[in-house]
Structure formats: C-alpha cells, structure tokens
Amino acid sequence: xxxxxxxxxxxxxxxxxxxxxxxxxxxxxxxxxxxxxxxxxxxxxxxxxxxxxxxxxxxxxxxxxxxxxxxxxxxxxxxxxxxxxxxxxx
Length: 90
Fold this sequence. Notes:
By secondary structure, the protein is of the alpha+beta class. It has one domain (2-89): Glutaredoxin (3-Layer(aba) Sandwich), CATH 3.40.30. The protein is built from four helices and four strands. The chain has helices spanning 12-27, 42-48, 70-81, 83-89; strands at 2-7, 32-37, 55-58, 61-64. Helix 1 links the parallel strand 1 and strand 2. The two termini are 19 Å apart.
C-alpha cells in the first residue's frame, strides 16, 4: 500500500512523523512510503490540496497534525491501509 508523506526536511514535526513511519515500515515492509518535500516539490502540495504539514495521504484518506502523537499516526496508517484488520486476524 502506498503512503505519501507531505513534509519538509526543516520541520521538527515532519521529522518526527518520518521516524514513526520508518519504525512502522520495519514491522510492515509491504508499505511503500513516498516522502514529498515542500521545498523541492511545491506543485505536488498544491495539486493535493495540502495546507498543513506534516500530512499523510493513503488513497483518499488524508490526515495532518499540528502536534502529532505516535499512537494517532500509527492508528491512522494501520486503519487506512488495512494493517489493523490484518493484525487482528493474526
């Protein structure tokens, strides 16, 4: 499942989200995480309608945080990708 992360490398909140996703990706290598940086790819931010970052886009699901909590990020990714239901079955 493709996970798009809209961020910037100079944003501490974005770096925190990036660390959470890297940790989650170690547990679920099937996740394909793409990082889109505001400073180098502003047009993609505009096209996606992203106004607050960090933001995560999975399919049609979009979520952004002013103060991200690890549990909220993991819960969003697991629910949007279906990983939560897989974990419940296992």
